[in-house]
Design goal:
By secondary structure, the chain is an alpha/beta fold. The chain contains ten helices and seven strands. Its cofactor is Mg(2+).
Length: about 260
C-alpha cells in the first residue's frame, strides 16, 4: 500500500540529466582510482550497500546536454579480473588506469584490456595515466602510452587528481565516444548551441515578442542584438512556411532538397 505513493513520487520527479552512462574504472589496486573519484567535487556515492565496489555519480556538460556518469571502481580485485565479469554488464565505457610512476601497473593494462574485450567487446575505452604531479618519478613515458593507446583504438590522457588536471577532459571524451557509438549524437546535433550568447538569445526570444524587447531592463546593445535575432528567426519561420505552402499547391514536385535556415 505504501509503495504506490513512493512510485508515483519517483515518476513525477524530473530527471537532472539527459543521458546516463555506466563507466567502469579498471586497473591494479594501487594506481589511484579512488583518488580520481574522491577528487570529484560533485560526486556522490549511490550504492552504500556495496562494500568495496560502490559507484559514484558525477554530471558533465557535453554539447549542451547533461551527461550523468555512474563511475564504478572495481578496486583492482582479483588476479583474473572476476570483477569485470560481474560489472561489465550494461557498461557504456571503460577507463583503464595505470600509475605513471609504476611500470608494472602499465604492463598490467594488457591483462585488463584482454579481460575487458572478452566480457565487454567493442565498448569505448580511454587509457589514463594517473599521478602526473609525480612526473619526476616517471617510469612510463607519455609517448609509450600514446602509442599503446593508438594501437588499441583508445584515447589517452595523463591526469592528476591533486591538481585537478585532465580528469573532466577524459570523462568528456569517453562520454562523447559512448554516445556516438550508441547513435545518440544525432539527437542533439540539430539543437547544438554555438555560443552562450545564442543560448541566452534563444531563451529570451522564446519567452517574449519583438515589441516587448524594448521594455526589458537590458543595455541598448543587447536589445539590438535580441531584436535582430528575433526578426531573423521570424523570417526563417515565415520563409519555411511559405515554401511549404508553395510546394503543396504545386501539381508537380520540384525538388527533393530540404530548405534550411542557419543563424550565424
Amino acid at each position: 500500500m505504501h509503495a504506490l505513493p513512493v512510485l508515483m513520487h519517483k515518476i513525477n520527479m524530473t530527471k537532472d540529466y539527459d543521458y546516463l552512462l555506466k563507466v567502469l574504472l579498471v586497473g591494479d589496486s594501487d594506481v589511484g582510482k579512488h583518488e580520481i573519484l574522491s577528487g570529484l567535487e560533485d560526486a556522490s556515492s549511490e550504492s552504500p550497500f556495496c562494500s568495496g565496489n560502490a559507484y559514484k555519480t558525477t554530471t558533465i556538460l557535453l554539447e549542451g546536454k547533461r551527461v550523468k556518469l555512474q563511475l564504478w571502481d572495481t578496486s583492482g580485485q582479483g588476479r583474473f579480473c572476476t570483477i569485470i565479469r560481474s560489472y561489465s554488464r550494461g557498461a557504456q565505457g571503460i577507463i583503464l588506469v595505470y600509475d605513471i610512476t609504476n611500470k608494472w601497473s602499465f604492463d598490467g593494462i594488457d591483462r585488463w584490456l584482454k579481460e575487458v574485450e572478452e566480457h565487454a567487446p567493442g565498448i569505448p575505452k580511454v587509457l589514463v595515466g594517473n599521478r602526473l604531479h609525480l612526473a619526476f618519478k616517471r617510469q612510463v613515458a607519455a609517448k609509450q602510452a600514446e602509442l599503446y593507446a593508438s594501437r588499441n583504438n583508445m584515447s589517452c590522457f595523463e591526469i592528476s587528481p591533486l591538481c585537478d588536471f585532465n580528469i573532466r577532459e577524459s570523462f568528456c571524451e569517453l562520454a562523447r565516444m559512448a554516445l556516438h557509438r550508441n547513435g545518440m549524437e544525432r539527437i542533439w546535433r540539430n539543437n547544438k548551441v554555438l555560443s552562450l550568447q545564442e543560448l541566452c538569445c534563444r531563451t529570451i526570444v522564446r519567452r517574449t515578442s519583438v515589441y516587448a524587447i524594448d521594455s526589458l531592463p537590458l543595455p541598448p546593445s543587447v536589445k539590438s542584438n535580441l531584436k535582430s535575432y528575433a526578426l531573423t528567426t521570424s523570417q526563417c519561420y515565415n520563409s519555411l512556411n511559405h515554401n511549404t505552402k508553395h510546394k503543396n499547391r504545386s501539381k508537380t514536385p520540384t525538388s527533393s532538397g530540404r530548405n534550411s535556415c542557419n543563424i550565424a
